[in-house]
């Protein structure tokens, strides 16, 4: 029986992850958002893996800072958002909405999800229902708006929300515990945009804390669960989303 490909997480900086999509039979790996070189290069060498390609979701340095050093040691194609050609000088393939790309043993559809940045993309693998979403959606939260509008980010989140329920979301930061405190605060507000059941949030908290207590990440997120408890996915309008995002910025 063929071995199912898997995703490994490499922690970098304070709260970033680099995702390593591994095909054990071919000994190939695709790296997503390598913000630094050393940890990724060491992983490749320690596990005798060949780098088949690099996927970049947006131009922030904590997502692209390791690319040059990495391809210097492990040459591979680099795929980046077409709208970020002026900000990313280490890519050789430019992707946009609707593109389908094959990288090593994996195939991805490209989704443009502006809001956090104007050029932000996500990479969707339909075979395994994996979404590599960069900084658009987080556990119980969403990314800050550095370049885009509230409407753009709201619409981007709606697109994620419409993906299959079994989708696993690989977001690039471990913010879930902090976002949990924000959700608890929201639950105590009158007319809170959270419309999910309090019991769902309690179950989420229990599982999250059990994982974090033994040093496991909260990522990947289960879309079926985020739909029930993530306030930014529960917002019913752009105005409601903007209210939430402004409130979260103050926390």
Proportion of residues in helical segments: 25-40%
What is the makeup of the main sheet? 6 strands, mixed
Outline the low-pLDDT stretches: none
Distance between the termini: 49 Å
- Note the total helix count: 9
Which CATH architecture would you pick? Answer: 4-Layer Sandwich
Q: Find the CATH superfamily.
A: Ribonuclease Z/Hydroxyacylglutathione hydrolase-like
Broad shape: globular
Radius of gyration: 18 Å
CATH class: Alpha Beta
What order do the strands of the largest sheet run in, or round the barrel if closed? 1-2-3-4-5-6
Strand content: 25-35%
Number of domains: 1
The helix/strand order is EEEHEHHEEEEEEEEHEHHEHHH
Commentary on this structure:
The structure is a single chain. This protein is an alpha/beta fold and 251 residues long. It has a single domain, classed as Metallo-beta-lactamase, Chain A. A hairpin with a 2-residue loop joins strand 7 and strand 8. The longest helix has 16 residues. The chain is globular.
């Amino acid at each position: 029986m063929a071995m199912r490909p898997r995703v490994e997480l490499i922690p970098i900086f304070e709260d970033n992850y680099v995702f390593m999509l591994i095909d054990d039979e071919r000994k190939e790996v695709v790296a997503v958002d390598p913000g630094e070189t050393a940890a990724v290069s060491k992983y490749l060498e320690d596990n005798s893996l060949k780098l088949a390609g690099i996927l970049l979701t947006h131009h922030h340095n904590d997502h692209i800072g390791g690319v040059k050093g990495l391809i210097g040691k492990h040459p591979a194609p680099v795929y980046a958002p077409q709208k970020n050609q002026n900000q990313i000088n280490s890519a050789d393939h430019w992707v946009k909405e609707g593109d389908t790309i094959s990288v090593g043993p994996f195939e991805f559809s490209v989704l443009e999800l502006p809001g956090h940045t104007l050029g932000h993309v996500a990479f969707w693998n339909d075979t395994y229902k994996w979404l590599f979403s960069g900084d658009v959606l987080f556990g119980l939260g969403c990314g800050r708006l550095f370049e885009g509008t509230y409407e753009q980010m709201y619409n981007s989140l709606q697109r994620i929300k419409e993906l299959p329920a079994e989708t696993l979301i690989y977001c690039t930061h471990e913010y879930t515990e902090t976002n949990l405190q924000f959700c608890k605060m929201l639950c105590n507000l009158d007319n809170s945009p959270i419309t999910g059941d309090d019991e769902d949030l309690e179950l989420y908290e229990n599982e999250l804390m059990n994982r974090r207590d033994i040093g496991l990440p909260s990522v990947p997120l289960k879309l079926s669960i985020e739909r029930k408890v993530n306030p930014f996915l529960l917002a019913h309008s752009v105005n409601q989303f903007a209210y939430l995002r402004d409130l979260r910025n103050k926390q």
